[in-house]
Amino acid sequence: MFALTILGALLFMSWLIPAQSGFWYQVDAGVFFYFNHLLGESVAFRYLVAFTNLRPFDAVAFLFMLGIFYQYYRRQNRAGKRWMVCIGLTMLVTAVIAKQFDMAMDFSRPSPTKFFSLQGVSVLRVSELTGWPAKDWSSTSFPGDHGMMLMIFSFFMLRYFGRKAFFWSALVVVVFSLPRIMAGAHWLTDVVVGAGSISCVVLSWMLLTPASDRVIAWFNRHLPKKILG
Hints:
Shape: globular
Number of helices: 11
Radius of gyration: 19 Å
Distance between the termini: 33 Å
Number of domains: 1
CATH class: Mainly Alpha
């Protein structure tokens, strides 16, 4: 638990201290320009990125998570289904706590499309290339909220349902975090460092202590009995 908390802090500091000059900046810039170049080279890739960055597409990630969750939910008896509802509510509580960490850090930065445009660098924007209202620009891209919520879901699935559930959940994290990175709406480190460091801290205290079990038990005691009681 303490090791993961320290790891989260060190991960964040490794990115913060040598800002815009160190290892992470080089990785970020390399990833951004690789995908930005592809936007100009491949029409198919361009429209794939545009489609996966439309606002309604965000719901697809939720549906995939719901589908994974449901695969375990439907196998439970009545008491087990109630227990899983309580797990879902505990995930939401954890997400709120993680968001408070994000707000307490009070740190933001523009997306790579905006950052490099302000530096006078010519970059491609998928929304302009396709004419679609794709998300490819942000004034506050750090940390990656989308990735953070997906990570919370994944590690809850690992804690309560094992490695197979985690594998599919982690796949959702990768697949649904990539579109924003490919479009330039997020840096790679918004997800890897931003979402990753906050998740390390919050999830270590929630899942490696009795905290999540106690929150689940609290919900189980206080939810109306008519909810699968």
